[in-house]
Amino acid sequence: MSTNLILYAVAYLLGAIPFGLILARVFAKVDIKNSGSKSIGATNVLRVVKQENPRLAKILSVMTVVLDALKGVAPILVARYMGFDDSVQWAMAVLAVLGHCYSPYLGFEGGKGIATGAGVLACFLPLCVGIALIAWFLVGRLLKVSSLASLTALTTLLVSSFLLNPSLSGLNTQAPVLIIAFLVVYKHIPNIKRLFCGEEKAVI
After folding, report:
1. Which of 172, 51, 41 is nearest to 118 (CA)?
2. Interacting residues of 152 by C-beta distance below 8 A, sequence separation 6+
3. CA distance linking residue 157 with residue 161, whole number of Å
4. Is residue 138 part of a domain?
5. What is the C-alpha separation between 89 and 81, in angstroms, rounded?
6. HEC readout, the chain
7. For residue 177, what are the domain limits?
8. pLDDT tens string 113-157
9. 149-185 CB burial, b ≥16 within 10 A, e <16
10. Is 35 among the domain residues?
């Protein structure tokens, strides 16, 4: 049990690292917590940094996505290599997303969980995440609205997960996927309100 708790703590604390904030401060000398949407995710990195350096903004936003995904993936793969069962790995996945959304390093504020959520879910549901990424790409390219693309991808993932994996391996429940989806939707409530009011800005 003590080893499980250590793995849970590592997953949460790694998930909580605000890579977007760090990269923007180090390489662009800006604080994205005080600019744009004030989110720590890749979209706000792109939005804020591109005002001064569009090329750097693209590089940093891609780096943010990759690192936000990897910080959720890495501890799960370590736990899998150590032989821990699916229930432990799924708990770590949820905690990684929770850490990103409510980071203790930022006073329990944080990002919206898309990249970290996609990363951890890809460890268990690679086909569903692949389908969701296609939906994200198509909506993003057509409508240029990051939040709408992300929410569409999340909906696609949920539908495909229930259709292709009605009972998650080792769990017989979709609870971890639903918890991650709830966190992502909850963090997107301001964006959802702006979408309904026609005020959400195109940024991708």
Report:
1. 41
2. 135, 136, 139
3. 6
4. yes
5. 11
6. CHHHHHHHHHHHHHHCCCHHHHHHHHHHCCCHHHCCCCCCCHHHHHHHHCCCCHHHHHHHHHHHHHHHHHHHHHHHHHHHHCCCCHHHHHHHHHHHHHHHHCEHHHCCECCCCHHHHHHHHHCCCHHHHHHHHHHHHHHHHHHCCHHHHHHHHHHHHHHHHHHHCCCCCCCCCCHHHHHHHHHHHHHCHHHHHHHHHCCCCCCC
7. 2-104+112-197
8. 999 999 999 999 999 999 999 999 999 889 888 889 999 999 999
9. bbbbbbebbbebbeeeeeebeeeeebebbeebbebbb
10. yes
- Residue 66 phi/psi, 5-degree rounding, is -65, -50
Say if 204 falls within a structural domain.
Answer: no
Domain count, the chain: 1
What does the pLDDT look like over 11-33, one tens digit per residue?
Answer: 999 999 999 999 999 999 999 99
Q: How many residues does the chain have?
A: 204
Q: Which two tokens stand for residue 48?
A: 């804020």
Q: Is residue 202 part of a domain?
A: no
